[in-house]
Amino acid sequence: MQPLAHDHPARVEYWLDSGGGDWWIADPIYIHPEAKVLDFVFSNGEGQYDNAGGRDYHAPVGLEDGTLPPEEDHVAKREELLEEEQGPLDATAAHRAGQRAERKFLARSSFAPRPPEDPATAKVVTVPAIPVAGKPVDVFYRLDRSDPKCPLRTNDVFIQGSWNRWTHSDGFGPTQMFPADPSMLPGGPNAKPAYTAKIFVPKNAHVMDFYFKDTQANGQGNYDSKYGLDYHVNITGAAGGGDPIMRVVNIAVEMAPIAKVGGMGDVVTALSRAIIEKGHNVEVILPKYDCMDHEQIDGLHLADEFTCNGVEINVWKGDVEDVPVTFLQPENGHFDVGCIYGRGDDHIRFNFFCECALEWLKVTDAKVDVVHCHDWSSAPAIFARRSRLPAGCATVFTIHNLNFGQDLIGRAMERATFATTVSPTYASEIADQGAIRVHKEKLVGVRNGIDIEIWDPMTDECLEQNYNADSWKNGKAVAKRQLAERLKMAMPPADHSVPLVGVVARLTHQKGVHMIKHAMYRTVENGGQVVLLGSAPDGNVQREFNQMAEDIGNRFPGQSGFVFAYDEPLSHLIYAASDILLVPSMFEPCGLTQMIAMRYGCIPVVRRTGGLRDTVFDVDDDRERAAEQGLTPNGFSFDGSQHYDIEYALDRAMRMYASEKTNWDTLVGTTMRQDWGWTDPADTYVEHYWKATKSAKYQAAQGLHRD
Question: Which parts of the sequence belong to the Carbohydrate binding module family domain (predicted)?
Answer without folding.
Answer: 7-62, 134-236
